[in-house]
Design brief:
Chain lengths: ~300, ~290
């Protein structure tokens, strides 16, 4: 029926038109202020620019050569970022996992306990930094007072002023801030463990370990992937907490790549090397993100 | 939250498990440790500087004094920063959710050729670390002549918030029955009408979850604000707190009062809407 066909085509054409209108605001804003800077940073990594002049002379790979060969801070920041990344993929998710297992048991007050462990996640990271800076205060801070009260005065340190431990002092604050995040994702995963299966296993005489190993753990696979990927990406982003606690010091001992990229461009007015560092970080992130996104999208298409 | 029928009894067991009692005690102790920083901050905020230096850090204040709050409010320009944070958050959060809902609907419910690629581009955006490219972000906002303006910070906030919301709403919209749409379209309704009259009312729990999550994220954001809001009359609360810390770091009582005032709004929102919060956070992950 030709009439029917024409009508359908008109409906479809107008549907595509409507789709374009509905998508326009999101595409414009996301494209202009997220994707464009993403491309721009790649361009900036090949030019010399102070952020003010109109001219952006092309300098080839000079910025990359400079950060790799003439910038000792870059290597320090890279090492710190690697240490930070390894620690953040292991420690907060590990604690979050144990908390989730514990808080999934039938114990009184578990909603309240979950709320307590999650609370630091919703505090502004810059406030977390301020809180911990004060707790690490060498004279009146909580840590050194507790150590004195326990008679362990010998352990007293200038937690953020000593370049050999400052990075780890910040990391402790980060654990406090982020363990609840992993916990919530694992708790959501535990909801997917079939109750019937657990009960059946128990009735059949399976011990705690067997139930965990053969029933609970296999169901947590997807959550584990999500937590690891998110922890990895979040660790590349470490900015607020370091900026707020030490600003990268003392003597660059807590410098990180994201912070160093910011410092070079925004404080030293040298956008080229800063952008080169950003590009390196973005490539590293992409190496993690692209396979993951690929998997997520494929799953959703299979599910649909 | 599910009520517990029989405390300390593992699933499928009729007896009380002593190990669970031990676990419970351990978790209680850890929870105490976890909230200790908060107690420490609140205690200090109620003490005079002399008391902070003379008394033990974890003793409650003997003579609670709210004066630190009034002084920190004035010296930290909380009038300005609280107002800026409120304006930016109240505009950004509903606007961002509306824009995301429009886009998610189009991607989930209208068939057109570029839908798949566009969806991929949005999913990719959920993982772009903006902290890594603050300088080019500054460049774009500067080119638009929007440094030190509300629009200059709201636009990038929108841009980096849209992908996650599109991702979560897309999953939700896609699972709504197609018959709903088809019947309404045959009656001559536009897609916008279908979205507003049918989809949004059915999605209230997800929308609430995303709203709460985004409120806290926007309220807390620091790095982008740092590069775009450079004039102190445009500062938000996190920027104000950072500046307070560097100016009055040895005025312990007031500094801690400033911390409490900065984190209190987000904390209250979390405690009131806790349920939505967790579902918003896990929606993206679980619906994978």
């Amino acid at each position: 029926m030709p009439v029917h066909g024409a009508m359908r085509r008109r409906l479809r054409d107008s549907a595509a038109g409507q789709a374009a209108l509905l998508l326009a605001p999101a595409v414009l804003i996301y494209g202009g202020l997220a994707l464009y800077p993403l491309v721009d940073v790649i361009k900036l990594s090949f030019v010399k620019w102070n952020g003010l002049t109109a001219a952006q002379p092309f300098v080839g790979l000079a910025n990359y050569v400079q950060i790799f060969t003439a910038d000792p801070v870059f290597w320090r920041a890279l090492t710190n970022t690697l240490i930070w990344t390894v620690l953040s993929v292991i420690v907060p998710p590990g604690i979050g996992f144990l908390l989730a297992l514990g808080l999934n048991q039938s114990i009184p007050g578990r909603s309240l306990l979950r709320a307590v462990f999650y609370l630091p996640v919703i505090i502004a990271p810059i406030a977390v930094a301020t809180i911990w800076r004060w707790m690490y205060d060498p004279y009146f801070g909580l840590f050194n007072q507790v150590l004195t009260a326990l008679g362990a005065g010998g352990l007293i340190r200038d937690w953020l002023g000593d370049s050999s431990i400052a990075l780890y002092s910040i990391f402790i604050a980060y654990v406090w801030e982020s363990a609840g995040f992993s916990m919530v994702l694992f708790l959501a995963g535990l909801q997917g463990v079939p109750r019937v299966l657990v009960e059946a296993a128990r009735i059949d005489g399976a011990g705690r370990w067997s139930v965990f190993r053969y029933v609970v753990l296999p169901a947590l696979g997807p959550s584990l992937t999500i937590v690891v990927v998110l922890s990895l990406i979040n660790s590349f982003r470490a900015f607020d907490i370091v900026y707020g606690m030490t600003g990268g010091g003392p003597a660059q001992s807590t410098q990180m790549l994201a912070l160093w990229a910011y410092t070079q461009a925004m404080q030293l007015g040298d956008f080229g090397p800063g952008s080169a560092i950003s590009v390196i970080l973005l490539l590293t992130t992409a190496a993690v993100v692209i396979p993951y996104v690929h998997r997520v999208v494929r799953r959703r298409e299979v599910a649909g | 939250m599910t009520a517990i029928a029989a405390p300390f009894r593992p699933l499928g067991s009729g007896r009380t498990d002593p190990l669970l009692v031990i676990l419970w005690v351990a978790l209680l102790a850890l929870a105490l440790l976890w909230i200790m920083p908060f107690a420490f901050i609140v205690f200090t905020s109620l003490k005079s500087n002399a008391t902070v230096m003379g008394s033990s850090a974890f003793s409650p204040p003997a003579h609670p004094d709210l004066g630190n709050y009034a002084r920190a409010w004035a010296r930290g320009h909380f009038n300005t920063t609280m107002f800026n944070s409120a304006v930016i958050t109240l505009i950004k959060v509903p606007l961002g959710l509306a824009i995301s809902a429009l886009a998610a609907y189009a991607l989930a419910n209208i068939r057109f050729r570029a839908a798949r690629v566009l969806f991929l581009v949005f999913v990719f955006g959920t993982m772009i670390p903006f902290q890594v490219m603050l300088a080019p972000l500054f460049g774009v906002v500067n080119a638009l002549h929007l440094i030190n303006t509300y629009a200059g910070i709201i636009l990038p906030y929108l841009a980096f918030g849209i992908p996650y919301q599109v991702f979560v709403l897309h999953a939700f919209f896609r699972d709504l029955p197609r018959e709903l749409t088809e019947a309404a379209l045959l009656d001559g309704a536009s897609h916008l009408t279908v979205l507003c009259r049918i989809f949004l009312p059915l999605s209230l729990p997800v929308l609430a979850a995303l709203l709460i999550l985004d409120f806290v994220a926007t309220w807390n954001e620091f790095a982008m604000a740092l590069v775009i809001l450079q004039d102190n009359s445009t500062w938000t609360l996190p920027l104000g707190l950072m500046s307070f810390q560097s100016q009055f770091s040895s005025n312990y009582g007031e500094l801690n009062a400033a911390i409490v005032m900065t984190v209190l709004p987000a904390t209250l929102v979390y405690l009131i809407f806790q349920r939505y919060f967790v579902s918003g956070l896990t929606a993206g992950a679980v619906k994978e």
